[in-house]
Amino acid sequence: MTVTDIRKGLVGVIADETAVSKVNPETNSLLYRGYPVQELAATQPFEAVAYLLWNGELPTPEQLAALRATERAHRALTDEVRAAIDLVPLDAHPMDEVRTAVSVIGAQDLAGSGSVMDASGSAEENLARSIRLFAVLPAIVAYGQRRRRGEGLIAPRDDLDYAANFLWMTFGEVPDEVVVDAFNRSMILYAEHSFNASTFTSRVIASTLSDLYSAVTGAIGALKGPLHGGANEAVLHVFHEIGDAENVSSWLDDALARKRKIMGFGHRVYKRGDSRVPTMKAALDTLVAHYDRPDVAALYDALEAEFVSRKGIYPNLDYPSGPAYDLLGFDTVTFTPLFVASRVTGWTAHIMEQQAANALIRPLSAYSGPDERHVEGYVPDTAAIDVSERPEEAAG
Ligand SMILES: CC(C)(COP(=O)(O)OP(=O)(O)OC[C@H]1O[C@@H](n2cnc3c(N)ncnc32)[C@H](O)[C@@H]1OP(=O)(O)O)[C@@H](O)C(=O)NCCC(=O)NCCS
């Protein structure tokens, strides 16, 4: 292998096929199981999109009702998982809390399952596990924010759908329909995006025939990074640094002079704009109007216009979702856990797809270390057999 064969960052490498979603940077489109994500965001509750990602089709009213019934039955945190979350220091990042909670849920669910040979589970078991994780993640995220604020756990409400209940468990009130709708749209937009870093991580873990919880736990670790999921949180830090729209130009002069990456801009796949941004920007606009915060829109527009004109690099989904989650009342550190609550649907769809047609994911590397050398003073054991004389064993 030559160094020119290396695709650092796996740029441009097609690692496998998937039927879960299609990202087309040429047409700036994103399809979930064939449906444009914008259409799904405009018409569907998040639960129906989760069903679509897992099953390949949108649910009938009966199928949606059945999924909602199961989701409602698994919303509450158990005392054990709550106790595990409480072990995580309050000043740790909440992604550590979410990762820990999912890991504990997995260990409890798989307790007594015996050998690792049984870990991967059947398709039916993994769908049931996916629904349970999807159902409980809002409680994990909401409780995390509340305990950092010194507030108590709020029990889920059976009369509310997923998005409204999520906001209820976080804030103890159900906001207006326009606010619930904006939040629902954000959940749909974040749900799936082909072989991004966290999804690929989940597929790598699934490909070893490890269990779904381990794959999701690993994906959460990948999502935490600021080049991936952590960017929505980083966008808010940028907004706070800039402070006001009139400071954008001077702030950007300084940031670019220091070769800083401007969070919320750029994308590995989309080079001419992220297909999800217009829908999320429209949701942000409804929140700006609802909460009467034109200053947020002014800063958003000013930074976008200035950065795009200077660098030709466009916003990604994290750019509008960061300020939207801020307006909704989520703490900045909670933004990436919100991404987990959504993306768990895509991850689990990919884990099931991987295991249905599995090949261990194990790329090669080009060695760039020292040439072969030997430990000083080492005397070879003359009784040892020279493997070069036994080619059939050396090959194994
Ligand atoms: C997402 C990201 C990692 C994609 O990276 P990539 O495909 O590897 O693109 P590159 O890093 O090769 O970028 C190409 C050029 O654009 C620049 N660039 C890309 N995104 C940039 C950003 N957000 N701010 C400043 N410059 C950026 C790079 O510095 C590079 O410049 P160079 O050719 O002079 O070195 C990158 O755009 C980024 O770090 N964005 C900020 C984090 C973010 O918002 N992540 C969420 C992604 S959904």
TrEMBL record:
The alphabetical list of record keywords is: Acyltransferase, Transferase, Tricarboxylic acid cycle
What chemistry does it catalyse, as a reaction equation? Answer: oxaloacetate + acetyl-CoA + H2O = citrate + CoA + H(+)
Sorted alphabetically, which InterPro entries does this protein's record hold?
2-MeCitrate/Citrate_synth_II, Citrate_synth-like_lrg_a-sub, Citrate_synth-like_sm_a-sub, Citrate_synthase, Citrate_synthase_AS, Citrate_synthase_bac-typ, Citrate_synthase_sf
Pathway where it operates:
Carbohydrate metabolism; tricarboxylic acid cycle
Report a single Gene Ontology molecular function: citrate synthase activity
Question: According to its UniProt record, which protein family does this protein belong to?
Answer: Belongs to the citrate synthase family.
Q: What is this protein called?
A: Citrate synthase
